[in-house]
Design goal:
heterodimer, A: 552 residues, alpha+beta, Dna Ligase, domain 1, 9-stranded mixed β-sheet, 6-stranded antiparallel beta barrel, 15 helices, elongated, B: 248 residues, alpha/beta, Rossmann fold, two-stranded antiparallel sheet, 11 strands, 24% helix, 22% strand
Chain lengths: 552, 248
């Protein structure tokens, strides 16, 4: 293992990570409890909120239960990007080869700048001072931001983890984590496998008893490939301290760069972003024609007066057309709305996208007729628009949950537009899987086409006019004969003749969650067909019959 | 008597919007208004040179069982009203084949729609979007947005839809080739292109306590533009014994 690591160790990299960036960008300091919410889930918290038990991935209700005084903020991507541009611009004093990963973290290769700074310790110190000075300027005080974490290691993966582990509060380079050359396997070994960031694989590894990267890396590589395929191989390489993908000797073909000229020059970000969308689709098309995908893209913008802003953006996953367009928008937001000293003096005349690092495209399996279709795109845009008109959470899509009642098999969840892929939600499950759990006692099909949100009470009478009951063994007291709607609260007692029952089936008793005294449910369901041909599902629960659904 | 002094027309007219231009660039006040642009836009050229769209291509596919009602498929750009008990099942059945070929559905303001039944009939649930009923003033714009982007839009308004909204939606359907379904017996202020009424259903399956609901035979009456005044009547299995819609 260690022999392989020295042969194939990654490029020595320095990673700068600003912890809780979404909050810093919104101007919230680390001392007040606050959280940032995106599509109903907590995505970032301040240290003060974390102390109270708020964690990422929680729902708002749970977070507020743990910390009632927490301040809730909505995520603002463009603001995050705009403010991070200030930090990235400050780091250009250290190196021109800065790679932005996403707002809040960026990286650069150590080899060049370390010679200028005279040693890694000095380089780390200088970087930390520059970043903290930029943050101080941005927020206005040194108490308004949690500082930055710096990690240095062989390879981006280890450097990123080192930056995450660094104590951001120590400013002068002392808090950075510097993994010595060749020390990456030892640094990674005790870390949990969850840091690999591949939930499906990690789940299997944990169940196999491999809960640290060291244990996973100790497996023979050939066995890992045989069992987990290419994804397992990449994860195994990361865990052993190598670069995620095996080196690919293919050079980037020279003609992949795409550009667009603006005449007249454009001043507004949304106009450029609009052009960037089709430009990144063109780039994506060219790449996929050569069987390639892009992991590092150079976005270069030029103004009428010759000012240039070039920034490299990296994504370890593959940068799809949507992701590239987003990054163009982030970069230009930061530039065009940045501090006056760095703001360009005229409109943008040219936008260039250069794929700086490509890998063979093995990744996403597109749909049979090609990826997200135009219809998918249109639908997603309309959903976003309607959400803007009606309010957040008003547009919902079905998701499979499973259950015994027709109303609980599919739940409606808020529509979320995923970055980089269509709204087809490859991850959203809409039907029972073949290996899903069975639901004994589920209502037999065909299922009712109208499941009433607010079921109306009804009286089920037998031929003698008595209420029909179901005993403990699930047997009806008498065959149902008549369905009577109860009188309206203010109306007269007469309710008409009611619906005569011509056919019925059931009852099917249901005793759910009998082990849980609070959520326990006992009911009996009956299908009845009235004389007019209307079939209904009536449910007896707590001594009251209700029309739960209609076979509409 | 001297001829009455005539004001130049330019002084009486609206101030010229380009009066900061040089003299020779200004439009002559008496000259005819500038001619419309003779160079067509790319969009215009594309629409002129587009091959003729056959009527068959302007239709959404339907299940074979519904071919009697919709020979050649569900014509795009029309408005359809469906009422009667069984309306939801029929609406879903009409959409099943279209969603399987990539069309999206939006359902506005029908909280009672049985999603499990829709999935059971074979609707592609990954292309279904459910929108909460917006308040009556916002209803028109929301549905208009959806009609522009979704091939199939089903509405079940609980309020009185304004005549202006209804006409605008119908026009937008024609323009975009979407199909608007109006569910339920509630009034619709505009003339619907097609009206379907589900009536007289008989269920097979349940007996006194034995069996279960199995299949329904229902008569569907279609009336509307381009149809005989008495309407066209078909018998359908909604659903058939296999859970799918079948011809009777």
């Amino acid at each position: 293992m260690s022999g392989a690591a020295t042969v194939d160790a990654g490029v020595r990299t320095l990673v700068v990570r600003c912890p809780d960036w979404p909050l810093t960008a919104l101007g919230v300091g680390p001392l007040q409890p606050a959280l940032v919410l995106a599509s109903g889930r907590v995505v970032a918290t301040t240290p003060a909120a974390r102390e109270a038990g708020v964690a990422r991935g929680q729902r708002l209700r749970e977070a507020q239960f743990r910390c009632p005084e927490v301040r809730v903020l909505e995520r603002d991507d463009s603001r995050e990007a705009r403010r991070f541009e200030v930090v990235a611009a400050a780091l250009e004093d250290v190196t021109p080869w800065l790679e932005a990963w996403r707002p809040g973290s960026c990286a650069f290769g150590v080899r060049g700048p370390v010679r200028l700074s005279g040693g890694e310790v000095n380089l780390v110190g200088r970087t930390a001072r520059l970043v903290v000075a930029a943050l101080d300027d941005l927020v206005g005080s040194s108490a308004g931001h949690p500082g930055c974490g710096i990690g240095v290691a062989d390879g981006r993966f280890a450097a990123g983890l080192a930056a995450g582990a660094a104590d951001a509060s120590v400013v002068d380079g002392g808090g950075a984590v510097v993994v010595p050359p060749g020390g990456v396997p030892a640094f990674l070994a005790p870390l949990p496998v969850a840091v690999l960031g591949r939930p499906a694989l990690v789940d299997v590894l944990v169940r196999l008893g491999l809960d640290t990267l060291g244990a996973f890396a100790a497996l023979p590589a050939a066995d890992v490939v045989a069992r987990f395929g290419a994804e397992g191989r990449d994860a195994h390489r990361l865990a052993s301290g190598m670069d995620g993908r095996p080196p690919d000797p293919r050079p980037v073909p020279p003609d992949l760069e795409v550009s667009v000229a603006f005449d007249p020059p454009v001043e507004r970000v949304d106009q450029v972003a609009f052009a960037a969308r089709s430009l990144s689709e063109a780039l994506h098309g060219r790449l996929s024609d050569s069987g390639l995908a892009c992991t590092l893209v150079l976005i270069e913008a030029e103004t009428e007066h010759g000012e240039r802003l070039a920034r490299r953006w990296r994504d370890e996953g593959v940068l799809g057309p949507g992701a590239v367009a987003d990054r163009v928008r982030w970069q230009l937001e930061g530039w065009l709305h940045g501090p006056p000293a760095t703001r360009p003096t005229s409109g943008i005349t040219r936008l260039v996208l250069v794929p700086d690092e490509v890998v063979p495209a093995t990744g996403r399996q597109q749909g049979f007729w090609g990826g997200a279709s135009a219809a998918d795109e249109r639908a997603a845009r309309a959903c976003t628009r309607v959400e803007g008109l009606v309010g957040p959470g008003s547009v919902r899509v079905p998701e499979w949950r499973g259950g015994r009642d027709p109303g609980e098999c599919l739940a409606l969840v808020p529509f979320v537009r995923r970055d980089g892929d269509g709204p087809g939600h490859p991850s959203r499950v809409v039907a029972a899987g073949a290996d899903g759990p069975p639901w004994p006692g589920a209502l037999p099909g065909p299922l009712p086409a109208a499941v009433h949100v607010d079921p109306a009470t009804v009286e089920v009478r037998d031929a003698a006019g008595r209420m029909v009951a179901v005993d403990g063994r699930g047997v009806l007291s008498a065959p149902p004969h008549l369905l009577l709607s109860p009188p309206a609260p203010g109306g007269s007692a007469a309710t008409g003749a009611g619906d005569r029952v011509v056919a019925w089936a059931g009852p099917w008793p249901l005793d759910e969650r009998w082990w849980d005294p609070r959520r326990r449910r006992r009911s009996a369901r009956l299908q009845v067909v009235a004389a007019d041909g209307t079939a209904r599902l009536v449910v007896l629960e707590g001594g009251v019959w209700r029309v739960a659904a209609t076979y509409d | 008597m001297a001829a009455p002094h005539r004001f130049p027309a330019s002084l009486l007219a609206e101030p010229d919007p380009f009066d900061d231009l040089a003299e020779e660039e200004r439009a002559e006040p008496g000259a005819e208004p500038s001619r419309p642009r003779s160079v067509p836009t790319v969009g215009e050229v594309a629409s002129r040179t587009r091959p003729t769209v056959l009527a068959v291509e302007r239709a959404l596919p339907v299940l074979p069982a519904l071919a009697g009602l919709f020979p050649g498929g569900l014509r795009r750009g029309i408005t359809i009203g469906i009422s009667g008990v069984g309306a939801r099942s029929l609406a879903i059945a009409m959409m099943v084949r279209a969603t399987a070929t990539g069309s999206w559905i939006a359902v506005v303001g029908d909280p009672d729609l049985g999603l499990a039944a829709a999935a059971g009939q074979g609707l592609a649930m990954e292309r279904l979007v459910v929108v909460e009923a917006p308040d009556p003033t916002g209803w028109g714009p929301v549905v208009a947005t959806l009609v522009g982007a979704f091939d199939l839009v089903m509405v079940a308004p609980r309020h009185r839809v304004g005549a202006v909204d209804a006409r605008r939606l119908a026009a937008r359907c024609r323009e975009r080739g979407s199909v608007l379904f109006h569910l339920g017996a509630g009034p619709w202020p505009d003339r619907l292109d097609l009206r379907l009424v589900v009536g007289a259903a008989t269920w097979t399956g349940p007996d006194a306590g034995h069996g279960r609901l199995w299949s329904r035979r229902a008569g569907v009456t279609a009336s509307g533009r381009g149809m005989e005044s008495t309407g066209r009547r078909t018998e359908l299995l909604l659903p058939g014994p296999d859970g799918m819609t079948g011809g009777a």
